[in-house]
Structure formats: structure tokens, C-alpha cells
Specification:
heterotrimer, A mainly alpha (303), B alpha/beta (257), C mainly alpha (309), B: 257 residues, alpha/beta, six-stranded mixed beta sheet, four-stranded antiparallel beta sheet, 10 helices, 10 strands, C: mainly alpha, globular
């Protein structure tokens, strides 16, 4: 029984990270209707930003402090928000209103560009690096359960970010505009919404969340490398689709489901080798039986 | 069974709480020109989609040539002899005028993958026959000179005509036209009515015309059914309907009485 | 082209064999690249049937290639010791066809359940299928698991690769240009209208997947017997994307353009070999720039010529 709870905690921590990244996919899909393949790489850049910011922050704040860790997180989020907006401005904006597949391929191109540039010896290099400990590393033993401080941090941070995101999307003017654009772009434009600003903001917001996901991931798995965003990004995307793409609570839910299922499958001897395939198996099952995802609204084609 | 080509018996469809078509009865004879009219949102196009198998009715039965059509897919119904056009023209955008019609001719041809690859004599003769057949159709409707042009580059009226030709290429027994006069000026409309009558006589088929434009329908249809809010409120010859107060009310509102 | 197509195929195969006969004269490095090009033409033209002509955007072509490659390689590795040397070409042919057939079965398995999906969703699900196939080979001991298969005989010659390339072009070209094949393009243009014209969209979509997967499987077998070893990492979704980029740069649904793109994109990494570190950066930048500047493909000028495939 403790084994089950242990796996549940591990799964929740992983799922929260998937959920954070999935939110970015889903938000961008909401406003632009395309899969931002480069999103997984922004997640990776977030982790690397944390890697480089940590020693800087440590100059004036004690190493491994919660406050220092939070500062690193915020800095990485800001940097990645800017990177996300830059990517949108340079690569996707010229392609607005072009066929979806063109944009999809461009996104794949951007993703490859980031990955290969970061693998270059002059940038990060291909070798994995050890991520510094941002916060005091403690583990608590409760009953038979082992809970790492980093896992608690993941859950707490995710919760805070989700509440903040909900506030931005539901209560602020820019969030209302975002929802308007994803509901009906043309009507939003007619209502005076500055569409470029909203799309840019959406990319920034999603990228910031991905950066947070990157740092939380790095804190839990302690090793980072330029290709870490490929599989994680794909799975987070799967989480977004499972939850119903374009649907924010759906993305968080999909992330949690995926994280938990994957963690449990990893604990079952026969299945553990297939861990990487499981996400896609879930995806296929969901799409076959509920093509619009768990929380998405079904779309009917008009004839 | 009776001799009617198409028969709808108490056909109903609900989308969620909305009953788009309610207990619709309709009959079309083998060589009849029937109109289906009604104000916007009356359920005309829905009725169309029910007949062509795009939607399955939630109640009632549709018979085509005496056979129930339940659970048949659109392409299967086309094979049995129901062809249609679309309200918002849906030509094959990347194909030429010729190929648009050619794609529709293929369903009655025996040649499949194997023949297309082996390219024997039978296949080549078949392809020649297709070409003749397509060109004949195009010539009848004065579209021959456009054969190589991209379908979407044609003027609007010609696109509408091409869509009708494409539907005829499937050799239907019943042709359904979904608002063919939409977006046409009076001269074009007049030409269209001539065309529809010509098609009916030349190909000896039945036509069901869904139309918003009263003039077109009243001008050519032998019998007209009127839908309002999914319910058939009247049916009869154009002359009968003109005098029917229910029809006038549906179109002009209660005050007009 | 109708009556001449079969003759054209025979000429192409004969030419491939003739070139192959003299291949001992050529530089081995260039010969290897020529074979790569042949294999990539098969992959790109077969994917073009699915993605370009039929409009089913698939990102899982590497998965079909893996099925064919592993099947063919396993078959050869098991049987090469007990078969007489004279039977080697026959054995190879059977291995390739078997690989193609199993890949076609995989194509059926992917094509049928994904029928309802479109656009992005279809892309991501086919990507998922491809990844599942890769994970399967990566975890199955009989296929060497993570290490892969080694010691596959070097049987893929110029003649084999280019004959199958010619066959692929022939099959896809003939299918699409026939009256029957208009159905693929009709489904691509407008599925609802195609259905109303008596075209069964389901059948055409599945057919495209099965035929496309078959040739991807053949290409996989040729690849296995060319590189002489297989590792699951070689069939990840990057490989699928490479093939998709060939199709897009060539212009979706334009066989000739896709062939040229396959040739150019095979040569590009070789040309950039001098910039070992940055060549993939250049490659990815090229994709972005081309998508922004020429999204309709490199070799398309104006609209697609009417009546041609």
C-alpha cells in the first residue's frame, strides 16, 4: 500500500511538470490552432537558464535557499518568456494565415534549430550536466513514504502557478482578450483586440510556464542536456491532447494522468521497458474513443 | 411498396434539444421535379443531409427505390443513384474542370488498383471511354472549353454548373440541388431554371430542389413542400401554395395577413 | 503517359542494373550516397501518396520503415547461413517483400483507427504510432533491443535501390493519374464532396496508408542491407520528419518535385560535411527559411498543372 502511495507522489510530481508544459501547448493551440513543436525546447532552455542563473544568484543570496531558488525560477521564466515571444515574432508571425502544415513544419524547424544550436560545442554542448541544488535537499520519511523536498516544491510551485494563470486568464483584461481570440479570432479583432499583442503574450505566458517546468524537472532529475525537451515535450503535448487541446484545466488534468500512469507503469516489471510508449498508447486510445480529449468539446463539421 | 423513387416516412432528427426536422413525410416520383422551400433555418439543408446519408435520422425511415437507406454512407447512396450539389460550392479545388467530372465518373467503372498498375488494353480502353464520357457531359453544359482550367478559377455561375455536371456524372436517378440559385442575379436565375428543366428531361431523372428563392421554385417545380421550423406546413402545386395562408405567414410573418 | 509508363519502368530498371554492373568502377563513397538517394526517393514518393495526394498528414513513416527494415534483416540473418549462395538474390527479394508486407499490415493497423482524425491530430497520432513501433523494437530481445541488429549482409546494390525507386514512382504515378486514382486527390480536396460523388473516403485513405507503408517497408529492408546494422534510434521521429521535409519541399502531391527534393536533401548533409558541427543547424535554418519563403515547395511555379499528377 505504501508502495502505491509512493508511486502516486512520484507520479503527481512528474504529472505536474507535464501539466505545466502542456498548458503552453494548449494556450498556443487555443489562439493560433497549431502545435508549437518548439515548446519542448523552451522547456529545456528554462532548465539551462536556471543552470546559469543559479551561480549568479548565489553571489548575493545564500546557496540552496528557498528565496534564492524562487528568484532563479522567476528569472528563468522571464528569459524564456522573451525567447518564446521572439520565436513567435521571427518564425511564426510571417506565417500567419498560411496553411497549418506550413506552420507545423516551421515549428519543427525551429525546434531542430534550437536543439542543434544548443548541442553545438560553443553553446551548451551535447553532454549532460549536473543541475545545481537550488533548495535545501531534504527528504521526509512519513510512515514508509519517502518524500523529497524537491517533490513538494514541484507540487507547491505548480499549484501557485496554476492559480496565477487562472487569475490572469479569467480576471485580467489581457486574459479575457486571450479567451476571446481563441473563441473567435475575427470577432475579437472586430472588438478591438490587438491580435498580435495577444498572441505574443500567449507565447510569453506559455514559455514562462515551460521554463518553470524545466527548472522543476531539473531539480528532480538533476541532470540536464539539450535534447531533454524532445521526449518530455512530446509527452506534455500528449497530455494536452488527452485533456482536450485548447482547454486549460484539461492540460493540467492530462499532465497529471500521464505522469501517474507512466510512473505506475515504470514500477511494473514487464511494462517498465515500454514506459516511453505508454504516453502514445494513451493518446491513441483517448483519440479513438474521445477525439476531442477528456474535457474538450466535440467539433462537428458543417455540410 | 409503392412506385415512388424516394419516400420519407415521419423522418425526425434531433441535435441535442433541437428538433431540426420533425416527422417529415415526403414522396418523389421517378421523373418528378419537386421543390423544398422554407425560410432560413427551416431545416431544408438538414433534410437534404438526411436523404444523402450525411446524418442518420433519430426517427422515421427513408426509402430509396423501395429500400430503406438507414446506415448507408453517402458514397453508398450515391452508388444507388442519389447525387447532390452543395449550398456552398464544394468542387475539388486542386483539380481541373475535366478531372472534377472524371473523379465522379469513376464509381461505375470496374477498374481498380490492379488495372491502374497493369495498364492492359481493357484499362486503356476504359480510360478512353471515361474521357469521351466526361467530354460529352462538359460539352452538353458548355463547359468543354474550360476543360483544362482549374475548377476554382471558373466564374461563379460556371462553378455552380460544373458542380451540377459533376453530380450528373455519377449517373443518378435522383438529383438533389442545394440552393443552386444562391448568389445569382435574375438573368442567371432564369438560365438556371431552364437548365434544371433541361436536365430533368434530357437525363430522365427526378430532381429535388432546395431553394430559398421563391421565384425559381414556383417557376419550375411540379410540386412544392414547405418547411418551417422543421415541420412540413404545406405541400401542393405552386398555385395552391400561393393561396395558402400558412405559407404566407411563414414567409412574411403573422402581421402580413 | 498511359501506355508508355510500363515501358518507362522497364527502361529505368534496366538502366539501374547497367549502372550497377559497372559500379565496381565507382568511388565507394559516391556509390553509397547514390544508394541513399534511391532509398530516400522510395520513402519520399511513398509518403507523398499518403501526405501529398491523399492529404493524410502522417508523421510516422519511419515506423513503417523500421517494420520493413527489421523484418527483412531478421529474415536474412536467420536464413542466409542455410541457403545456397546462388539463392541470395531470391532470398533478398523475399526478405524485402516480406518487410514490405508487414509494413503494409502496420499501415493498415495505423490507417484504420485514425480514419476519423485530421490535420494536427492525425499527425500527432501517427507520430505516436511510429514511436510505439520504435519502442517495440527497442525492447524486444529478438531484434537486438537497444543495441539493434548487426552483421546484416551488404546486399543492397545500386540496381536494387534504384529499381525499387523506379517501381515506387511508377506505382504511385500510375495510381494517381488513373481515373481510379482521382479518388485519392478528391479525398484530399474535399472529403464530404468526394463521398457525395460515390468515392469511399475510408477505402482510399486506408489504401494510401497501406501502399505507402508497403514501400516504406521495402525502403527499410534496402536500408538495412545497405548500412548493415539497424538500431532503433535510427527510426525515431526525426527520421519521419526528414521524409516529411522532402515531401513538403518537393511540393505536396507533386511526384517530380518530391524526387528532386529527396535527391537534394540527401546530398545536402554530404555537402555540409565540412561544417560537421553546424551542418544540422544550417539544415534546420533552411527548413524555416524555405517554409517562410516558399511554402508551396521549391519547384512549384504557379498553380499545379491541370490534369497531371
Amino acid at each position: 500500500m505504501t508502495e502505491v502511495f509512493q508511486q502516486l507522489i512520484n507520479g503527481l510530481a512528474l504529472g505536474a511538470i507535464y501539466g505545466l508544459i502542456a498548458l503552453g501547448y494548449t494556450m498556443v493551440y487555443g489562439v493560433l490552432r497549431f502545435i508549437n513543436f518548439a515548446h519542448g525546447d523552451v522547456f529545456m532552455l528554462g532548465a539551462f537558464a536556471g543552470y546559469y542563473f543559479a551561480p549568479l544568484v548565489n553571489r548575493f543570496l545564500p546557496a540552496q535557499s528557498y528565496f534564492g531558488g524562487a528568484l532563479v525560477l522567476v528569472l528563468a521564466m522571464v528569459v524564456c518568456a522573451l525567447i518564446g515571444m521572439l520565436i513567435e515574432f521571427l518564425a511564426y508571425r510571417p506565417l500567419r494565415n498560411r496553411p497549418k502544415l506550413t506552420v507545423l513544419i516551421t515549428a519543427i524547424g525551429v525546434s531542430l534549430f534550437i536543439e542543434y544550436t544548443c548541442q553545438h560545442a560553443a553553446v551548451f554542448g551535447a553532454a549532460p550536466r549536473k543541475f545545481p541544488d537550488l533548495i535545501p535537499a531534504t527528504t521526509w520519511h512519513i510512515g514508509g513514504l519517502v518524500i523529497a523536498s524537491s517533490q513538494v516544491i514541484v507540487l507547491v510551485t505548480t499549484l501557485i502557478l496554476l492559480i496565477a494563470l487562472r487569475f490572469i486568464v479569467q480576471k485580467t483584461k489581457v486574459g479575457t482578450a486571450m479567451r476571446a481570440v481563441s473563441f473567435n479570432e475575427q470577432a475579437a479583432v472586430l472588438m478591438g483586440v490587438n491580435i498580435n499583442r495577444i498572441i505574443s503574450f500567449t507565447f510569453g505566458l506559455g514559455s514562462a510556464l515551460a521554463a518553470a517546468g524545466g527548472i522543476l524537472y531539473a531539480m528532480n532529475y538533476s541532470s540536464i542536456e539539450p535534447l531533454m525537451g524532445v521526449q518530455t515535450g512530446l509527452k506534455a503535448f500528449v497530455a494536452a491532447v488527452v485533456g482536450g487541446i485548447g482547454n486549460l484545466p484539461g492540460a493540467a488534468l492530462g499532465g497529471l494522468i500521464l505522469g501517474i500512469v507512466e510512473t505506475f507503469a515504470g514500477g511494473i516489471p514487464g511494462l517498465s521497458n515500454y514506459r516511453d510508449g505508454i504516453a502514445f498508447a494513451i493518446l491513441i486510445l483517448i483519440l479513438l474513443f474521445r477525439p476531442s480529449g477528456l474535457l474538450g468539446k466535440p467539433q462537428v463539421e458543417k455540410v | 411498396m409503392n412506385a415512388s423513387l424516394l419516400q420519407l416516412e415521419k423522418v425526425t432528427i434531433r441535435f441535442g434539444g433541437l428538433t431540426a426536422v420533425c416527422e417529415l413525410d415526403l414522396q418523389i416520383g421517378a421523373h418528378e421535379l419537386v421543390g423544398l422551400i422554407g425560410p432560413n433555418g427551416a431545416g431544408k439543408t438538414t433534410a437534404f443531409n438526411l436523404i444523402t446519408g450525411v446524418y442518420q435520422p433519430t426517427g422515421g425511415t427513408i426509402f430509396f427505390q423501395g429500400q430503406p437507406t438507414a446506415n448507408l454512407k453517402p458514397h453508398q447512396l450515391t452508388r444507388r443513384g442519389i447525387a447532390r450539389t452543395f449550398q456552398n460550392i464544394r468542387l475539388f479545388a486542386s483539380m481541373s474542370v475535366f478531372d472534377n467530372v472524371r473523379a465522379a465518373v469513376q464509381l461505375h467503372r470496374p477498374h481498380g488498383i490492379r488495372d491502374a498498375l497493369w495498364r492492359g488494353r481493357g484499362f486503356r480502353d476504359g480510360e478512353k471511354a471515361v474521357e469521351t464520357q466526361v467530354m460529352e457531359l462538359l460539352e452538353i453544359f458548355k463547359l468543354g472549353r474550360f476543360r483544362a482550367a482549374n475548377a476554382r478559377s471558373l466564374p461563379y455561375g460556371e462553378q455552380r454548373r460544373l458542380e451540377i455536371v459533376r453530380a450528373l456524372a455519377t449517373q443518378p436517378k435522383l438529383l438533389l440541388l442545394d440552393e443552386p440559385a444562391a448568389g445569382m442575379n435574375p438573368t442567371e436565375k432564369l438560365e438556371l431554371t431552364r437548365l434544371i428543366r433541361f436536365i430533368k428531361d434530357k437525363f430522365q431523372i427526378a430532381v429535388l430542389l432546395v431553394e430559398h428563392d421563391m421565384q425559381v421554385v414556383m417557376g419550375i417545380c411540379e410540386r412544392v413542400a414547405v418547411l418551417d421550423y422543421g415541420v412540413k406546413i404545406a405541400e401542393g402545386t405552386p398555385a395552391e401554395l400561393r393561396a395558402n395562408p400558412k405559407v404566407i405567414e411563414a414567409y412574411l410573418g403573422a402581421e402580413a395577413r | 503517359m498511359n501506355s508508355g509508363a510500363k515501358r518507362w519502368l522497364l527502361v529505368a530498371v534496366a538502366a539501374a542494373m547497367a549502372v550497377s554492373y559497372f559500379s565496381a568502377q565507382f568511388n565507394r563513397y559516391y556509390l553509397g550516397i547514390a544508394i541513399d538517394i534511391g532509398i530516400n526517393i522510395i520513402l519520399a514518393v511513398s509518403l507523398n501518396l499518403i501526405n501529398g495526394h491523399t492529404g493524410q498528414f502522417s508523421l510516422g513513416h519511419a515506423g513503417f520503415m523500421a517494420v520493413g527494415g527489421y523484418t527483412a534483416a531478421k529474415f536474412t540473418l536467420e536464413l542466409q547461413t542455410i541457403s545456397p549462395p546462388w539463392a541470395q538474390p531470391l532470398l533478398f527479394l523475399v526478405a524485402l517483400l516480406l518487410g514490405g508486407l508487414l509494413a503494409a499490415v502496420a499501415g493498415l493497423a495505423v490507417g484504420v483507427p485514425t480514419l476519423r482524425l485530421r490535420g494536427d491530430y492525425l499527425a500527432i497520432v501517427t507520430l505516436g504510432f511510429g514511436e510505439i513501433i520504435r519502442v517495440f523494437f527497442q525492447t524486444t530481445e529478438a531484434f537486438g533491443a537497444a543495441t539493434g541488429l548487426t552483421g546484416i549482409p551488404h546486399w543492397t546494390t545500386f540496381a536494387w535501390a534504384w529499381s525499387f525507386a523506379a517501381l515506387t514512382v511508377f506505382v504511385v504515378g500510375c495510381l494517381v493519374s488513373s481515373t481510379y486514382g482521382r479518388g485519392f486527390i478528391a479525398v484530399h480536396d474535399d472529403e464530404v464532396a468526394a463521398g457525395a460523388m460515390g468515392i469511399n473516403p475510408v477505402r482510399y485513405k486506408v489504401t494510401a496508408f497501406v501502399i505507402g507503408a508497403f514501400f516504406a517497408g521495402i525502403a527499410g529492408g534496402l536500408y538495412a542491407h545497405h548500412k548493415q546494422f539497424l538500431s532503433p534510434g535510427g527510426f525515431d521521429f526525426m527520421k519521419s520528419i526528414d521524409i516529411v521535409v522532402m515531401v513538403i519541399l518537393g511540393g505536396m502531391g507533386r511526384t517530380a518535385g518530391v524526387i528532386v527534393a529527396a535527391v537534394l536533401l540527401t546530398l545536402l548533409p554530404e555537402v555540409l560535411r565540412g561544417f560537421a558541427d553546424s551542418r544540422m543547424i544550417i539544415y534546420s535554418l533552411l527548413i524555416i527559411v524555405l517554409m517562410i519563403a516558399r511554402p508551396q515547395g521549391l519547384f512549384t511555379f504557379g498553380r499545379k498543372a491541370a490534369g497531371k499528377a
